[in-house]
Every structure is written in C-alpha cells, then in structure tokens.
From TrEMBL:
Domain FAD-binding FR-type: residue ranges: 4-105
Protein name: Oxidoreductase
Source species taxonomy: Bacteria, Bacillati, Actinomycetota, Actinomycetes, Streptosporangiales
Pfam family for this entry, one: NAD_binding_1
Keywords, ordered alphabetically: 2Fe-2S, Iron, Iron-sulfur, Metal-binding
Length: 241
C-alpha cells in the first residue's frame, strides 16, 4: 500500500463560488494523481508549532500536479476561515492524499450515473462531472442538487452551460427562485423517482452531503429499489472546519 506523505501546496488561483465559499487551485509538486470522488487532508501549522487539519474533497479530476478544492467557511472553524478569507496566491499549505477508493467514478464505467448532492456535497460530484467531460465519456449523468437557496449554488455558471448527457435538477429547501415549480422543502421520494434513474437501469448512485441528508436520500433510493451495492455515500457532519 502506498504511504501517504505531506506535500507542500502553493496557491496559484482563487475563484469565488458563493459569498462564503471559494475554490482554491493549488500546485503540488510530486502529486501522484487521483480519481474523481477522492479527498485529501489539509494541514495548517502556526508559528508556535500548533497545527490543525481537515479533510476536503477534490473538486476536479487529476491535472498533473495541479489540484482544486472548494471550501465553505465555517464561522467557528480552525481551517476554513484561513482558506476562505486569509490565504493569498503564493501562500503554501500542506496536503496529504489522495484518500478514498470506494466513492469514486472511473471514466471507463458505462453504467448510468445518478449524483445526489446536498449543499457543499456537490464538490466531489462536480469532480465526476468534470472527469466525464474531460474523458469525452457518453455515460449519461443525472444530478439532483439540493441546497438552501439559489445564492448557495456552487459552480453556477459552469452548470448553466448545456452539456450533452448531463441532466440537472435543483431542489431548494428554504428559498426558491421566483415562480419555481416546486415548493421549498427537503428531498422526497418523488424527487428521486422523477429526477433519477429507474432502479432496473442499474445506475451507479453517488450521494454526498450532511449526514442527515445522506441517510435520508440513501434510504429513499433503497425504497425505490436500487441495490445497496450501487448506492455509494460520502457524508460530513459538524466539525471544526
């Protein structure tokens, strides 16, 4: 098994995604590459030697020694405030990875794909969408993206561009755009039945988001007849950020 080591990563670009989330583009000499859906650890070390680390999903497929992370600000966090409000181009952090081998999508896969995102859970799923595009894959993708309000959409401009074989459904839990056809509310059985794939298509289903969202969505997929081995989940809960 390959041993993971800490590597110096230099910030080369920053993109705002929402009022509280930023995408960080980092150069990591010696980066071994990764699969769409994997994550890594980020470590910050203060002058007095105190260090803090958090895990973040990779937001884009492998591109040589360049990686992308999208980080949401956690107000009382230790790591996310620095990554979203302080770090500047040219600054360095330490990263270790990639981590994870179950919650991944490979371009050679031919099964239809259903992506179910809750909030910032879109990040590893966006890596899969981008990996599909990069590979020129014709595997059909459907994305159900649940978020509190339209202002919290990550990758808004990119996802507005039409992409053959990618169908996107937005679901808002608190505030909807004007004249939106669905009332604000949490994901329901009908949402997944209407926007997902029939179970007899045997799609690969990837669900990512807060723990409660993931548990509900995964149970609904099982209720719809999807085989447990085709429902892959990645969850996150409250942490120090």
């Amino acid at each position: 098994m390959r041993r993971l080591i800490w590597r110096a990563a230099t910030l080369v670009e920053v993109r705002a995604e929402t009022a509280t989330a930023r995408t960080l583009v980092l150069d990591v000499p010696g980066w071994p590459g990764h699969l769409a859906g994997q994550h890594l650890d980020v470590r910050l070390t203060a002058d007095d030697g105190y260090s803090a680390q958090r895990s973040y999903s990779l937001a884009a497929p492998a591109d040589g020694e360049r990686i992308e992370l999208t980080v949401e600000l956690v107000d009382d966090g230790e790591v996310s405030p620095y990554l979203t409000e302080v770090i500047e181009v040219g600054d360095q952090v330490e990263v270790r990875g990639p981590v994870g081998g179950w919650f991944v999508w490979r371009p050679e896969s031919r099964a239809p794909v259903l992506l179910v995102a809750g909030g910032s859970g879109i990040v590893p799923l966006m890596a899969m969408i981008r990996a599909r595009r990069l590979a020129g894959s014709r595997t059909p993708f459907r994305l159900l993206y649940s978020l509190r309000d339209p202002g919290r959409r990550y990758y808004a401009a990119e996802l507005r561009r039409p992409e053959p074989g990618l169908d996107i459904t937005y679901l808002y839990t608190r505030t909807t755009p004007e004249d939106w056809p669905r009332k604000a509310g949490r994901v329901m059985l009908g949402d997944l039945a209407e926007s997902g794939w029939p179970a007899d298509f045997e799609p690969d289903c990837y669900v990512c988001g807060p723990t409660g969202f993931v548990e509900v969505a995964a149970d609904l997929l099982l209720d719809l007849g999807h085989a447990p081995e085709h429902v892959r989940t990645e969850r996150f809960g409250p942490s120090g950020g």
